[in-house]
Protein: GPP34 family phosphoprotein
Amino acid sequence: MTTARDLLLVSMDGTAAHRTVEQGDLSLALAGAELLDLAEAGILTLDGDRIVPGLPRELDDRQLTEAAAALARRTPYESVEDWLWRRGRGLYASYLGALETEGGVTRQHRRWIPLRTGRTAVADSPEKRRAVERWASGEPVLTGLAAAARLRDEPPEEFADRTGDAVVTVLAAVDDAVTELAAVRQRRSIEDAAFDNVWRGQ
Structure:
């Protein structure tokens, strides 16, 4: 069990989500979750907003091992923000694919449209139940990441007094990155609308 997998499971299960979350936002939060799990495992430390890697070693989780191997090991070390953008690219799809391979999620097909992929549903499993229990307990790392990804209405700063400096740093970086990504989406939407209006003669 990792924080990233827990976050993905509760977001898909509907346990955490008050609204539909963008895949890009969740990818950024998953990258932040990996950082916090690696810090908890002693694989890295944070020096301000810089990620200082420790000695590499195998971990029980394949994707977390991949994350550890992806750490930048040259000085000046990578910032948390840069890690989120680099590691987060396509991370939602990567975690979802792993869960599907393991049977953690299933595709719901309609009999009369067999070629369409259908929507995904979280399979009932001990992993899912543990993730839901962690969520229900209000564990601040998981709920703080969910807030930063806009799965919750509360701002992530509300969880700061229940966490350490590393968690506060990562939550703030995820929140800033998600805000920036939303601004990019809005700008593109405006540009696309203006382009469409030109073609319509408006």
